[in-house]
Each structure stands twice: as structure tokens, then as C-alpha cells.
Write a structure and sequence with these properties.
The protein is mainly alpha-helical. The chain has one domain (8-296): Rhopdopsin 7-helix transmembrane proteins (Up-down Bundle). It is built from nine helices and no strands. It has helices at 8-13, 20-30, 67-89, 96-116, 126-153, 162-188, 206-234, 239-268, 276-296. α4 (96-116) runs antiparallel to α5 (126-153) and α5 packs antiparallel against α6. The longest helix is centred in the C-terminal third of the chain and has 30 residues, at 239-268. The chain is globular, with a radius of gyration of 20 Å. The N and C termini lie far apart (51 Å). One of its GO terms (molecular function) is unfolded protein binding. Pfam families: Chs7. InterPro entries: Chs7.
Length: 310
């Protein structure tokens, strides 16, 4: 019976689910009998633990790795870099520094996603576990920075000042450090505090599940609620709200694609690609629309009236 915090079903049925990299090594070192032919041998194994469909490691059986998502991640990096540059140019816009930080953090997740889901590195290797742990830490930090951008938009404290930036960066570092450490402990069993899973086949870790699944969903929902209040009640505007609705819809669609269609695409392509590239496109599009939403409620130059809700 699946419990809260079990990853066994996700690692079996969701191709290119990065957090499975943490459990593969854990199982390999503590109870390798859990692994089936679908996850062995390690030198050519694709992502997942006993997956129903997976892309073989690059260079084995003619595999190019997760080539579609590799290309999309690279293009998304270019697109996000442009967003960072344009955000930085809007000197007078409220929350510019905080949004720029969010975009930088998202940008940093992309090369890690490219590596941790690209079927480059050997399953069970220390390098893959370490990079996956850092990836998890950045994802947790990204969603804190997203939520913090909504808090900054309320102007409870003035944006860009120490009273805003100190807690913003403090909690960004806290989420990154805590999630990275916990993920490393799960993957490498450094202290036995967060691992190994019991029973091994359950791939169980409540902290990793909360920080990589529950926390992102909760912070995105709270962000949407706060921005809805600011746009509709404080600013009494409607048009910017459509940007936030579109961004939320794109994010939800990306998750639905990832968890529901990825295996279908994997099997349909004979394990050449999966749905992760579609999810990455939708996620990056959601970030782009989020930028447009922010742009629509802020001013670009000091000569214009800036947005300061009372």
C-alpha cells in the first residue's frame, strides 16, 4: 500500500522523474534485490527505479539520451537569460530585484535538469546523486522566491531595501541548503537520519516529497491567491489577471503532461523521448507569461507613477 512520501509508483510510472536518482543509489547499496531487469545493469540503465518505460543511458543501444528535453532545456536557458536582461533594464519597477532573483534561480535549474534527466551519467553514481540533490535544493528555492515575489508585491515592506532583501535571501539560502542536505542524506545515506527507505522497495522519504512536491504546489497556489487579490482588489484591474491565469494554466498543464502523458509518449516513441520536453516548454512559457504579468502592473521608468498598493 502506497504511503504519503512513497516514490515507488512515481519512479515506476513517470519517466525522467529526477528525484528517483536519489533512491536508485540508495536501493543499489542497501538492497539491490529490489532492482529488476528494467533497472539493470547500472551502466546502461535509464532513469527511474524498475520503470515501465525509460530512455536508455546515452551511448547505449544507440540512445541519444533524453535528447528532446536536452534541446528544450538549452533553448529555455537562452529565453530565460533574455528575461533576466529585460527585467534588469526596468530600473523603477516594483520587485525588480526579487523577480530577477527568481528568474536567475529558474535559469540555474535548467542546466541541472538537463543533466539529471538527460540520461548522461551512470545510475547510482555519486555525481548523479549530488547534482540531483543540488537540483532539488534549487527547485525548493525557486518556489520560495516565487512566493516571496507575491509578498513583496503587497508592499508591506518596500522592495529592494534591506528589510525586503535580507529575509528574501535568507530564506532562499535556507530552502536551498536544507533541501540539498536532506536529498544528499537520502541519496548517500550520510547520517541515516533521512534514509535509507524502509522498506527499501517503497522508496520512502516524507521530507523529499514535501520539499519537491507539496511545497512547490502550495507556494504556487498561495502566490496566485495573493496576486489575484492585488490585481483585482488593490489595483482594480482585469487585464493583468489574464496573464496570471494563463501562467497558472500553463504550469498546471506542464505537471499534467509530466505525470500523465510522459509514459504514453515514451512508449509511443519506443523509448526515444518522453513528455519531459513538453513539460519544460510549458513551464518556461509559464515563467515568460509571469514576467508579462509583472510587467503589466509595474512601471519602467522613474518618471512614471510606480505601483505602490496602499
Amino acid at each position: 500500500m502506497t504511503r504519503f512520501g512513497d516514490f515507488d509508483t512515481l519512479c515506476k510510472d513517470t519517466p525522467s522523474y529526477p528525484w528517483c536518482n536519489l533512491f536508485y543509489r540508495q536501493v543499489l547499496h542497501h538492497n539491490s534485490s529490489v532492482l529488476t531487469d528494467a533497472s539493470l545493469p547500472t551502466v546502461s540503465a535509464g532513469m527511474g527505479v524498475n520503470p515501465t518505460c525509460t530512455i536508455p543511458r546515452m551511448g547505449h543501444d544507440g540512445s541519444l539520451g533524453n535528447i528532446a528535453n536536452i534541446v528544450v532545456c538549452a533553448l529555455s536557458m537562452v529565453f530565460t537569460a533574455v528575461l533576466i536582461w529585460t527585467t534588469n533594464k526596468r530600473k523603477a519597477a516594483v520587485g525588480r530585484i526579487e523577480l530577477r532573483t527568481f528568474l536567475i534561480l529558474y535559469f540555474l535549474t535548467l542546466p541541472l535538469q538537463l543533466i539529471t534527466t538527460g540520461s548522461f551519467l551512470e545510475q547510482g553514481s555519486t555525481a548523479l546523486v549530488a547534482l540531483t540533490a543540488v537540483h532539488a535544493g534549487l527547485v525548493a528555492a525557486v518556489f520560495w522566491s516565487l512566493l516571496a515575489n507575491a509578498l513583496v508585491a503587497t508592499q508591506v515592506v518596500e522592495d529592494g531595501t534591506p528589510s525586503s532583501l535580507v529575509p528574501f535571501y535568507f530564506f532562499t539560502v535556507c530552502f536551498f541548503a536544507a533541501t540539498t542536505y536532506i536529498s544528499l542524506d537520502v541519496g548517500l545515506t550520510i547520517t541515516h537520519t533521512f534514509g535509507p527507505s524502509n522498506p527499501p522497495a517503497a522508496l520512502h522519504s516524507i521530507p523529499v516529497f514535501v520539499l519537491t512536491s507539496i511545497w512547490p504546489a502550495a507556494s504556487a497556489l498561495i502566490y496566485f491567491g495573493i496576486m489575484t487579490y492585488i490585481v483585482l482588489v488593490v489595483l482594480n484591474e482585469v487585464r493583468p489577471m489574464w496573464f496570471y491565469i494563463l501562467s497558472a494554466a500553463l504550469f498546471v498543464l506542464s505537471q499534467l503532461d509530466y505525470f500523465l502523458l510522459s509514459r504514453v509518449i515514451c512508449k509511443g516513441s519506443s523509448e526515444k523521448i518522453d513528455g519531459s520536453f513538453v513539460a519544460t516548454i510549458l513551464e518556461t512559457a509559464a515563467v515568460g507569461v509571469l514576467y508579462l504579468a509583472w510587467k503589466s502592473i509595474t512601471e519602467e521608468s522613474w518618471d512614471e507613477d510606480a505601483y505602490y498598493p496602499s
